[in-house]
Design goal:
The protein has 174 residues and is an all-alpha fold. It contains seven helices and no strands. The longest helix is centred in the N-terminal third of the chain and has 33 residues.
Length: 174
Amino acid sequence: MMGVDVRTVGRSEERLGKLDDLYIQHFPGAVGLAYLLTGNHHQAEDLAQEAFVRLCGRFGHLRDPQSFGAYLRRTVVNLHVSGLRRLRVERAYLNQRGPETSRAPVPDIEGRADLWQALQRLPPRQRAAVVLRYYEDLSERETASVLRCSVAALKSLVGRGMQSLREQLRGEEP
């Protein structure tokens, strides 16, 4: 029978305890952010879970472990944007193949507020900028960092997104 190194077990349990605390503290917010980005609760949970798992695998390599929440938000947004790119490539391929491919209808979700519908009509980067800035209550600099753009570009994204939301809610064409 092989002996167990007590020092290793203690460190593993300590790290697992830290991950438990991080999960309890940050996972609900990550799901909320992902839900606002995707509009689907199941996709949001999957996206947040994937982001958490990826980030935890790199926990020992984080430059600032105290900024886990910021890293998690960035990972959620990056995974969402990557998924959108993948969908764009898939759609382009299906469009090239022509009408013989069947397309599943998008389910009509009842009971959504006008604001929610308007938010979903925004381009993905504008939606991400508005959600991070106002729902997540990040500063302009933090939001620009998550989206990997300048503060000026972020202000433009948020401004255009908010203007489009106002127009949609008033019933105007954007």
